[in-house]
Fold these 4 entries.
Entry 1:
Amino acid sequence: MAATARADNDQVLSLDHVGIAVHDAKDMEKKQCLGAEDESFDYYQRAQWLRAAVLGATDGLVSIASLMMGVGAVKKEFRAMLLAGFAGLVAGACSMAIGEFVSVSTQYDIEMAQLKREKKRRKTGDVEVQDIKEDMDKEKLPNPVQAAFASALSFSVGGLVPLLAAVVVKDHKVRLELVVGVASLTLIVFGVIGAKFGRTAVGRSCARLLVGGWMAMAITFGMTKFIGSGGLEL
């Protein structure tokens, strides 16, 4: 009897081990499937809107910060810097929206014409399948209005950063330093966000934005200071 009971226990333990092994195998297979799905993810589609968002926000930040640095190089009045920054923000947002709308509209027209040419070539076959495929292709077409709004919004968000920083301080020198500091910190944040979503090197992404922003602000400040100080006769 004892031998029979021991054999039964051994059989139960063996079945438990088999069940655990099967469960582990299923978990491993699921992880492999998830990994394959992650590797097959189309980062090109993500790069389209990521590029527009990062470009718009960075453009707004660098443009308004550089503009305010240029005005601050020759004007110490708080009102002059603020008005210049606000005018640049509105003009830049409108320019980005119009440019993006025209660009995406052109892309939409080209892709739409291509779909019509492909539809003429596919006259044979199942009509219902062709209609479904055509609807799916149309859903992938870019939206000019949406792209224009997103571009203007991202520019405005980036441009508001140096404006809000300048409002806080009244002292001219401290205001300029604060604009540069806040703009630099925000560029690093943009670089990290872009690198995380695009799966690229964080350091390289941040360095590109930071060096580019510093160059833009330094060149604008230096050239405006040179002209405003009478170094160039007009």
Entry 2:
Amino acid sequence: MASSSSFLLVALIALASWQAMASDPSPLQDFCVADNSSHVLVNGFVCKDPKEVTAEDFFLAAKLDMPRDTKMSKVGSIVTLLNVMRIPGLNTLGISLARIDYAPLGENPPHTHPRASEILTVLEGTLYVGFVTSNPENKLIWKVLNKGDVFVFPQGLIHFQFNPNPYKPAVAIAGLSSQNPGAITIANAVFGSKPPISDDVLAKAFQVEKKTVDWLHAQFWADNHN
């Protein structure tokens, strides 16, 4: 019995430790610049030879001071994400950055980041933002942000931003707690999956007629990421 108790204790400690480490891999040296030419598959990217690392591996002329063209976006927003795929030096550092441009009445539609929490600050304009808690409460936590305001979106929760001004654009900068936060836009994933999810499944899930699901399937679900 004592042996079983000891085993259970060790298992619980191991599980707790695994949960604590369930994030981007931590660096075991000064840096681990991503070697994008490597064909080795690992969780993240293989390290480039430190002797070959240069300042360019940590730099990108991203022109984040320049507005993006939101006219071609069906949702009226453009997300410019700077992650490890664009800045190899971010590998193992657990951070990334995004600029979001919103047209008048534009939105960054409901989405989740499966691997990151997000902190967002408004640089210009006004944004109505919020996130929804998990089942069963599904409580909406929301706020209207003005220039200089900051809001946090917890990892994995559905969240959004909307520019309520019909005349002026808005701009925000977001920091994310992963080198590759990922994004799942809810409408795109549900109605734009390839192959499409069965009408029977979606009609029952959303409590609508199949013809409504067919119409939604027929829409062009564009990505607003640049």
Entry 3:
Amino acid sequence: MVIQTFEEVPKLDCPSNAELWRCFLYCCYDSLALIGVYNYRDHTHQLWLWNPSTRESIVLPGPKFPPELFCTWGLGYDSVSDDYKILKIDLKSRSEILTLKSGSWRLTNKYPTDILPALFCTDSLVFVHGAFHWIDEITRFTVSALSISSEVYTEIPLPEQMLSIYNQTWGV
């Protein structure tokens, strides 16, 4: 077991006027952390990818649609392309994906239905078995998933036990 002292904790390069900035830890995967830095004075936003083990960080390119105050983020590794990818879904249900090798964002709006993805109580996306997952806010009866390799959306029905709890709680 390794114990670090406070002096050994890695630091990121922070702006000198830190009171005007706010940092958000969006998500983590494979010892990498996706951090958002928001400047309240000029309303700018930066994305940083940070590896606390090596103490290295890079500033990522901004998405095509500027992040809104409430966005949901996911970070995962695509073994097919041997690349890390970041998924952003905003309140307007626009989803974009960044591939780190190319350094560019693109839209991924290939939904299985006409209903755009809506997130329910989700601050960050869960990445399991090569796909990002979240509970769909519109139906609340499915888990939506986006494959990181094929970028295809699927829906997974929730177990009956969960549906019965939801129905009892919300009177559906």
Entry 4:
Amino acid sequence: MTKPLTVLKSVGPKLVPFFKTVAIYFVLFGDEERSSIFFCIVKLLPIISLILFVLMHGMNLSEYYRYSRRILIGLVLSCLGDAFLVWKKTYFEAGILMFALAQLQYARAFGWRPFNPYAGTVFAVLSGIIFYHLQTSLEGIMIYMVGIYVVLISIMGWRAVARVRFFDDLWTWTKLSSCAGAICFMISDLTIAVDKFVRPVPFAHPIIMVTYYAAQFGISLSVVDSPLEELMNVD
């Protein structure tokens, strides 16, 4: 397992663009969103920085980079989703679709071992409660799109949590990082859903974006150990 301090020294410089672009975003647009090309570019820059971060840790078509490839695809789909949501009045459904596909890629990256049905049950119950409260404010195709999205992000969260085995020697800080990222993603999207469909959430914009960038950061950081993890999992 790579030690956090060692990783900080080796990957820290590669993360400088991410932190700088996040700072720029909040300086310029920390209070509210805009529907403009400039806002779109500034909003996407942190995710583009994470795409480059993942690529700098190596990428090819071998099975050892399978995890990294799926995280990379998820980030690219998230970029597309972010762009669509800049003009959410017109492209909100397209944005949901892109993020749904991103959640699917993240879940595939996290894998199905260990299965951990107990965590799965908790996430199933929570997603059911959330959708029950949301569906009364939905109509038309949004009922089905939001329902499918809730299922997919809950599966993603379940698989991220299932990877972290605290009570043995198999957990790593990178797995913990992806777990924290997945939980932040769920908080961000839940805030979006409540604010859009149920009632206005105080400070919704900063809450959504802080948790969203934290989510993508945590998930992206998990690629650091991924080739070694894939090598150890080869049967």
